[in-house]
Amino acid sequence: MSTLTHERYCQEILAQTEALRGVLASGAALGTRVPTCPEWTLDELLRHTGGALRWSAELVRTRAAEDIPEEKVPRSAGPAEQTATALADWLDDSGRRLAEALREAGPEAPVWTWAWRQDAGFWARRMTHELAVHRADATLAAGLDYQVDPEVAADALDEWLEIVGFAQRTQPGDEAGELRGAGRSIHLHATDAPEGLDAEWLITFHEDGFTWERAHGKATVALRGPLTALLLAFYRRRTPDSGGLEVLGDRELLDFWLARASFG
């Protein structure tokens, strides 16, 4: 379940695209290879991100009842001009288009999605976190410091657990199906969460899958440290040994999860 309001997601989409403009303004070369997505250059990563923004905006704007091929979305491939300025302007416009479409639609407007929710609210949340994680990819590639709002990071972890659970339930061939086996558990503990933000997660394995909750508890393995580092590790952008993180207990179980927690 979403923990942020629809308007907050819209604001975050605009803020994240503005932050990507800052990455481009840093002088990072568009041909820079992205370590966390090694098949992409920075240019390719950002064109993928902007294309996803425009695709989801078109879905919401048209109240699509089925998927829309990306090639039918205007300017989804990005600007013809191969410059940081042109790319930044295109990304900015892409974010504004999505935020405007989401605000006009409202969270409950029926819209096709690939997931368990079929409404505009799904895209508001999904694209907020898509942007947050790909901004991390771009920021780290540029050699810059990456931070994300704690409430956004916590909600992104919630959503990722929902996605992995959805993949386990609906995609029999996905590696997420192997995340089962009673008697094992994983505890995530953010050590720098602001007061009032519950930032601990308990993932419990069962014979037929796993469940999770925001809770403290003794587990087979614990991963503890700064919230942003937890997010990056759980999205497999950084290792569990980086960013001030600490692994306590059965490291093999944590690695087992990280190798299989995916979708698609």
UniProtKB/TrEMBL annotation:
Ranges that cross the membrane: none
Keywords, in A-Z order: Isomerase
Highest taxon of source: Bacteria
Domain named MDMPI C-terminal: residues: 151-255
Molecular function terms, GO-annotated: isomerase activity
Keyword Cell membrane: no
Residue ranges of domain Mycothiol-dependent maleylpyruvate isomerase metal-binding in the record: 12-138
Pfam families for the chain: MDMPI_C, MDMPI_N
Family annotation (SUPFAM superfamilies): DinB/YfiT-like putative metalloenzymes
Protein name, as recorded: Maleylpyruvate isomerase family mycothiol-dependent enzyme
